[in-house]
């Protein structure tokens, strides 16, 4: 008697449907995981941007005017939220305990919770996710620098911890203003001097606690002079556009000559807002500009001088130079260190 048997194709009927159903679950799960991971990375990037901005902003604001813990928290909250796509981020900590350093910790903000919402993985009973970031900004005193080849005497420096801006003054080449003497009692020849252009045309590089070579003459820098003329014309254009020209210059506390070569001993770096100057005879621009803003600061022939005021200045990752333990003359640069 013949036994009835199903054909092989009939026995496997429906297997493809089961396989497709299983694979769809895997594909959907993988897609959900990819979306969730992307959301987590995006959230963390926003929080990191907020932490970076907050650390830099709080360091700058607190160095400029000083701040309480509550004020620092308010600065950080505003900057962190401003860097979030939804305009809302949580600053869980602003640490001011280390001198000249600010550390900010940010986390996700979802109402009163720090848990990241709307994750597909939550449908699979996966644990909640909390995303965070942190950043540390340091306030550092310049230890070296480069720029326009001009050095200022410390006897003209008038900033203290109590003031943000010094008086409008004239700094004269020679004999200088008032009693220009160094801390060692040696006379300093004038209120400013020209540095050797060792950093390129119309540029000088210097280091704190080092002697910088200078040209003892009153002549405007050459090699050729047109290079410095273009710098001065840029300053004029900036001033006439309504903006400030803030020069970060080395400050010397002693000067002398050695085997016919002049030197300035660099104490630190200060920021001077250039308002006017007279670097040559007559009134030819750009070497002479706005040299009589007030009767008290007028610089007329045979005067050679600059007119302006010292200012406290915080540069965020823009100062050309390295940090060091030199004197704090109101000019610092702030950078992210972690």
How does this structure look, described?
The chain has 338 residues and is of the alpha+beta class. It folds into two domains: 18-141, no CATH class; 144-336, no CATH class. It contains four helices and 17 strands. The strands form three sheets. Strands 1, 2, 3, 14, 15 and 17 form a six-stranded mixed β-sheet that branches. A five-stranded mixed β-barrel has the order 5-7-9-11-10. A two-stranded antiparallel sheet has the order 4-8. A hairpin with a 5-residue loop joins strand 1 and strand 2 (101-107). The N and C termini lie far apart (86 Å). Residues 111-115 have low confidence and may be disordered.
Relevant terms:
2 domains, six-stranded mixed sheet, five-stranded mixed beta barrel, 338 residues, alpha+beta, 4 helices
What's the gist of this structure?
The chain is α+β, with helices and mostly antiparallel strands and 338 residues long. 25% of the residues lie in helices and 30% in strands. Helix 2 (15-65) packs across helix 3.
The SSE string, one letter per element, is: HHHEEEEEEEEEHEEEEEEEE
- Name the average pLDDT: 81
Q: What is the percent of helical residues?
A: 25-40%
Can you summarize the main beta sheet? 6 strands, mixed
Q: Can you count the helices?
A: 4
Strand content: 25-35%
* SSE class: alpha+beta
Q: What is the terminal separation in angstroms? A: 86 Å
| Mass-distribution shape | elongated
How many beta-strand elements?
A: 17
Low-pLDDT stretches: 111-115
The radius of gyration computed from the alpha-carbon positions, rounded to a whole number of angstroms, is 32 Å
The count of domains is 2
């Amino acid at each position: 008697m013949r036994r009835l048997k199903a054909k092989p194709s009939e026995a496997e009927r429906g297997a493809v449907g089961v396989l497709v159903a299983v694979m769809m679950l895997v594909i959907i799960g993988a897609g959900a995981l990819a979306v969730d991971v992307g959301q987590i990375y995006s959230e963390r990037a926003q929080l990191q941007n907020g932490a970076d901005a907050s650390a830099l902003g709080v360091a700058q604001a607190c160095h400029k005017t000083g701040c309480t813990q509550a004020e620092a928290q308010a600065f950080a909250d505003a900057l962190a939220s401003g860097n979030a796509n939804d305009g809302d981020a949580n600053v869980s900590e602003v640490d001011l305990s280390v001198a000249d350093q600010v550390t900010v910790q940010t986390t996700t903000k979802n109402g009163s919770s720090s848990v990241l919402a709307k994750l597909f993985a939550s449908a699979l009973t996966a644990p909640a996710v909390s995303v965070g970031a942190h950043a540390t900004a340091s306030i550092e005193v310049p230890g070296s620098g480069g720029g326009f080849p001009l050095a200022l005497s410390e006897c003209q420096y008038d900033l203290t911890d109590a003031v943000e801006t010094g008086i409008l003054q004239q700094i004269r080449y020679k004999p200088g203003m008032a009693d220009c003497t160094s801390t060692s009692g040696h006379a300093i020849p004038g209120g400013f001097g020209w540095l050797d252009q060792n950093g390129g045309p119309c540029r000088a590089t210097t280091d704190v606690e080092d002697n910088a070579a200078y040209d003892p003459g009153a002549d405007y820098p050459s090699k050729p002079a047109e290079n410095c003329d273009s710098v001065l014309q840029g300053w004029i254009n900036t001033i006439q556009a309504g903006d400030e020209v803030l020069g970060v210059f080395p400050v010397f506390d002693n000067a002398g000559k050695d085997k016919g070569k002049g030197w300035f001993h660099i104490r630190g770096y200060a920021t001077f807002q250039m308002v006017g100057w007279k670097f040559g005879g007559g009134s030819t621009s750009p070497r002479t500009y706005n040299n009589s803003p007030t009767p008290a600061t007028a610089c007329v022939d045979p005067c050679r001088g600059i007119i302006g005021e010292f200012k406290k200045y915080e540069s965020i990752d823009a100062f050309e130079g390295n940090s060091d333990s030199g004197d704090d003359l109101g000019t610092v640069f702030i950078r992210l260190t972690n």
